[in-house]
Structures are given as structure tokens and as C-alpha cells.
Design a protein that fits this description.
Length: 242
Amino acid sequence: MPHLRTPISIVLAALLCHGAALAAEPLHTVPDTLAQRMMACTLCHGQEGRATNAGYFPRIAGKPADYLYHQLLHFRDGRRNNAGMSDLLDHLSDTYLRDIAGHFAGLDLPYPPPQPSDAQVDELARGEALVRRGDAARELPACTACHGAALTGVNPAVPGLLGLPRDYLIGQLGAWQTGLRKAFEPDCMAHIAQRLQPADVAAVSGWLAAQPLPANTRPAPPATLALPLKCGLSPQSGGGAR
């Protein structure tokens, strides 16, 4: 069979027709909104910041706005140790971090059911006792004294403890124990974590991760009673925005 060659004029005509067809199609534009920009966060924190109830990444949707803002400051300024977060936030201003925090704080999304726990009954009971009653002999206040009776957090700056993965909770308590995670002074969580034994950390984390969420998952209104420990929930005055 003779080798057939397509005339160059036909090839050029085909290319021109294809280019004209593409030009006729409307261009897809991505809206320049804060919600669109925050889609980068979903790679780790899940769709709309919901995360999951397993793994290591925490849910950020619905957390108190000041809490989220202060954590962004901690990552950017080196009080929390995570290279990925620090790199993402390094050049962002305080104002933009406040906008990010407000975006995720305003999301009211359902939680998944808790994962079944494989902890022993006595371990879960130990965790519940520390969460609800604390241990006065070791200067350990109940978690509910700061994080709210329902453990869904307290506005404007105390986070909820439910709906978080067990591994994440263990990791954060360990980070406070070793100094890898810090907060504004006085750092009350460091004071608490350093008084916990390894079995306490496992018990508290296991019990919290196994709890279902209440019908109202929003943070409680600002507390009217003083916290059991002095706690640096906000930065000291001064410094100014970047």
C-alpha cells in the first residue's frame, strides 16, 4: 500500500478550527473569595475543615474564633512546632490570620459519630474522672472547668475537646509535656500536661475521642466564673499587627 501523506494545508486548517472552537468556549474563572483560598486547608483538615475522627489532623470548623486566631499566631511565630503550618503562615499578617479564623469559626457543620474505643473499662473510667473531676492532689483541674460542661469549648478562646482524634489529643498533650507546643504566658496547659502520667494521657485522650457530640456543638458563651488556673488565652498588649 502506498504511504499516504496528509497535505500540510489540511493539518493547518484542522488546527485553526480546533483553536477557534476552544476560543469560543467561555473561560472558567475561579472566584477570588476567602472560602476558595481556604480550600488549601482541606488537604489536611478535611472538607470545610471538618477533618475526621481518626488520624492526626484536628477539626477546625466551628472552633472559637479567638482560639483559631491564636493558634495561627502560635504556628507563625514558633510557639507551635509544625514546619508545614509555619511555612504557610510565615508571611501572613495578623489581619489576614484573623479573617481565616473567622471563616472557619463561622462554619456550623455536623460531626461524624465517634470511633469505637478498644480501651479497657477501667481506663475509660480513669479518663472520665480526670475530665469531669480532675485531681486536686496533683493540681489538675477538671477539663470541664475550662472547656465547658459539654466540652464543646467556650467563647471566645477555649476550644472544644470532643470530635478530635485520639492520636491528635495524645500528640498535643505530649507536645506540651516536652515544650514543643507553647501558648501565651501563663501557659496553663503546659502546667496541666506536665502533671499527667503516660497512663493519664492515654485515658483522657481515649475517653474524649469515644464521646458522642451533644445536639448543640457550638462553643458555650463566655464564662462568668474565673478559671481554676491563670491562663494566657490572649497575647499580652503590644506588638502590633504585621
